[in-house]
Amino acid sequence: MSAARESGDRTQQLREKARQMTEAAERTTDPEQRQRLQEKARKLQEQSDQQGNIGSENIRPPK
């Protein structure tokens, strides 16, 4: 498996986990737990965005 493929798989896993955390935050009635889950989801989404950008740096045209 290529490094780009592995990076893409990892990015997808992070995004899926972030989505699950967001959904769990929406279901919980505890405000503190909701905030913790939303924060975890935000961090995972940021991490997936960074992972996704690593593999696409060479694809984008120069500015």
- Give a short account of the largest sheet: none
The unreliable regions are: none
Number of helices: 2
First and last CA, distance: 31 Å
Structural class: mainly alpha
Indicate the overall shape. elongated
* C-alpha-based Rg, rounded: 15 Å
Number of strands: 0
Q: Quick check: average pLDDT?
A: 84
What helical percentage do the residues reach?
Answer: over 70%
Short account of what is shown:
It contains 2 helices and no strands. It is an all-alpha fold and 63 residues long.
Give an overview in words:
The chain is mostly helical. The protein contains two helices and no strands. It has helices at residues 3-27, 31-56.
Task: Name the descriptors.
63 residues; elongated; 2 helices; single chain; mainly alpha
Helix and strand layout, with pairings?
Layout: H1 3-27, H2 31-56
